[in-house]
Specification:
Oligomer: single chain
Strand order of the largest sheet: 4-3-2-1-5-6-7
Strand content: 5-15%
Order of helices and strands: EHEHEHEHEHEHEHEHHHHEEEHHHHHH
Structural class: alpha/beta
Distance between the termini: 57 Å
Number of domains: 3
Bound molecules: nicotinamide-adenine-dinucleotide, magnesium ion
Shape: globular
Helix content: 40-55%
């Protein structure tokens, strides 16, 4: 590639699991991608290491104090030219900077919404890992993508797979292209075969040890409760304009088929590969071209078999809760997401049992009303309310 085609990249959440995988792919293609900005919340040492390795133009950290620390470390290392910023306004600044072509949205949770939307509104190529942003703001988010002519590429492996299996990037609606259904695969998480009684005593360490994927804590817990698949169902509806009943969840324990598209003529097209997030990340970076992602070729003889089974919503009610929230519409998905973030944190802190996560989310959703999600203010207000309600319920009752 010539220097004129070098893409400037901002990574929101550079110190996380997706952030680090993105850095790995970028490092393999120094002539094609240049790091413009990296952000982290609290991990200042990890951010400093990234700055030393990649020398981006800007680095953003959560607090003023950590920014001061990072400034001193960079000066001592002879990296005075890296600008250090801090706080939420800086996240918006590095998302919409004119020099930036590509924004990897890899902050976890609702905290990623505003910076991801800023990238969309600046018309960037947005690589969307932060599914919570889309779950919260669905229609508004997708409207902003088309209004600002942003290029939205799904990084969640399932949605990336569906994107790859759809013709012409789903222009014209699913049914006009003969798409009958989207088959969203799920590994089933570490507790796929556990009984309800055994699920009562799951510890955070057990929930964070996923059999096939190495991920951040929050998404690991979501994968174990299947709330991750619920959020992904909502994500799929928005990304591809699908109705909830067009999205079928298929448990596939090997995580080799990353998802499928079923057509009216009976064809089912699947995307396969090793479970390694560098594949969808490389796809998003290079689309419509293909580049080396550093991922080992798929050895089908070593995999040897692919199994598929139906999800069990009695043991994993989060899937049902997400489907119901999507059907309720309006601010319900934002409330679901907020209640789940509170519940997962409480579980990680030892304040809530594993099965209590779904119970707390369900009780929260029963307590608050659904409003029309017609502005960002309403969505943020409902997000805050669901958090307050969930915290209050957590103190009042045992779940
Ligand atoms: P992670 O916890 O490993 O990393 C999160 C990143 O966000 C870190 O860089 C952290 O510093 C930053 N961050 C956290 N809270 C923040 C805040 N309040 N303000 C600003 N920055 C903040 O998470 P991850 O596993 O990399 O996941 C990131 C996103 O990608 C999530 O939305 C997740 O659902 C999605 N995703 C992850 C995977 C995966 O394999 N890890 C797969 C698909 C989708
Ligand atoms: Mg996924």
């Amino acid at each position: 590639m010539t220097s004129s085609t070098v893409q400037n990249v901002t990574i929101l959440g550079a110190t996380g699991s997706i952030g680090r995988s993105t850095l790995d792919v970028i490092a393999r293609h120094p002539d094609a991608y240049r790091l413009h900005a990296v952000t982290a919340y609290r991990s200042r040492e990890a951010l400093f290491d990234i700055c030393r390795r990649f020398a981006p133009a800007q680095a953003v950290i959560g607090t003023r104090e950590d920014a001061g620390w990072l400034r001193r470390q960079l000066d001592d290392a002879g990296l005075e030219r890296i600008e250090v910023l801090h706080g939420d306004p800086a996240l918006l600044e590095v998302s919409r900077a004119v020099e930036v072509d590509v924004v990897m949205a890899a902050i976890v949770g609702a905290a990623g919404l505003m910076p991801t939307l800023a990238a969309v509104e600046a018309g960037k190529r947005v690589l969307l890992a932060n599914k919570e942003a889309l779950v919260m703001s669905g229609g508004l988010f997708m409207d902003a993508v088309s209004r600002h002519d942003a290029t939205l590429l799904p990084i969640d492996s399932e949605h990336n797979a569906i994107y790859q299996c759809l013709p012409m990037q789903q222009r014209g609606g699913l049914s006009r292209q003969g798409v009958a259904r989207l088959l969203l695969t799920a590994s089933g998480g570490p507790f796929r075969e556990w009984s309800l009684a055994d699920l009562e005593s799951v510890t955070p360490a057990q929930a964070c040890a996923h059999p096939n994927w190495s991920m951040g804590q929050k998404i690991s817990v979501d994968s174990a409760t299947l709330m991750n698949k619920g959020l992904e169902l909502i994500e799929a509806c928005w990304l591809f304009g699908a109705a909830p009943e067009q999205v079928e969840v298929v448990v596939h324990p090997q995580s080799i088929v990353h998802s499928m598209v079923g057509y009216a003529d009976g064809s089912v097209i699947a995307q396969m590969g090793n479970p390694d997030m560098r594949t969808p990340i490389a796809y998003g970076l290079a689309w419509p071209a293909r580049i080396d992602a550093g991922v080992a070729p798929l050895d089908l003889f070593a995999v040897s078999r692919l199994d598929f089974e139906a999800p069990d919503e009695a043991r994993f009610p989060c899937l049902r809760l997400a489907r119901e929230a999507m059907a309720a519409g309006g601010t319900a998905p934002a409330s679901l997401n907020a209640a789940n973030e509170v519940a997962v944190q409480a579980f990680l802190d030892g304040r809530l049992s594993f099965l209590g996560i779904a119970r707390l989310v369900e009780s929260t959703l029963e307590t608050i009303e659904v409003r029309a999600a017609d502005s960002l203010d309403v969505i943020l207000c409902e997000d805050a309310q669901a958090r307050r309600v969930a915290e209050t319920l957590l103190h009042q009752r045992s779940f």
